[in-house]
């Protein structure tokens, strides 16, 4: 009896761990790196976001927490968007990357990475103004805070 209980307990722990891991992947718990500003600008090294993967960040100023992502799309551009859209932002689920696409975790719509920063409205990832050179991606704090309504 004791052995059967141990096996069942182990199975429950493994199932809970799997569910927890899936929830983290789906809903973004723990996926955001915190960024700070210097003289009104957030600067992120290009080398940190040049691997074709979406990199998620959060900026907090006075309790206004804003989440966004950066990725280098297949056309070689560094893209930036809030981890929210005009339609599904109230659900607070953001996006997950699937190859060359960003997928809304709420409605499942897919957006090609080369269209991030180009298309706005609807369920498209809401564009975040950024600039970049060979060393850094820079984003003005005022541009980041313009998206705080998506996260309140």
Task: Tell me what the structure shows.
The strands form three sheets. The chain has a four-stranded mixed beta sheet with strand order 1-3-4-5, with no helix packed on it. The chain has a three-stranded antiparallel beta sheet with strand order 2-10-9. Strands 6-7-8 form a three-stranded antiparallel beta sheet. With about 150 residues, the protein is of the alpha+beta class. The protein has two helices and ten strands; from the N terminus they run H-E-E-E-E-E-E-E-E-E-E-H. The protein has two domains: about 1-25; about 35-150, Rieske [2Fe-2S] iron-sulphur domain (Rieske Iron-sulfur Protein, 3-layer Sandwich). Mean pLDDT is about 85; it is low at about 10-30. Keywords: Signal. This is DUF2318 domain-containing protein.
Please tag this protein with its features.
152 residues; single chain; alpha+beta; globular; Rieske Iron-sulfur Protein
- Based on secondary structure, the structural category is alpha+beta
Sheet with the most strands: spatial strand order? 1-3-4-5
In the CATH hierarchy, the third-tier topology of the largest domain is known as Rieske Iron-sulfur Protein
The CATH architecture name of the largest domain reads 3-layer Sandwich
Number of helices: 2
Strand residues, percent:
25-35%
Look at the structure and name the CATH superfamily of the largest domain: Rieske [2Fe-2S] iron-sulphur domain
Helix-strand pattern, N to C? HEEEEEEEEEEH
Rg to the nearest angstrom? 18 Å
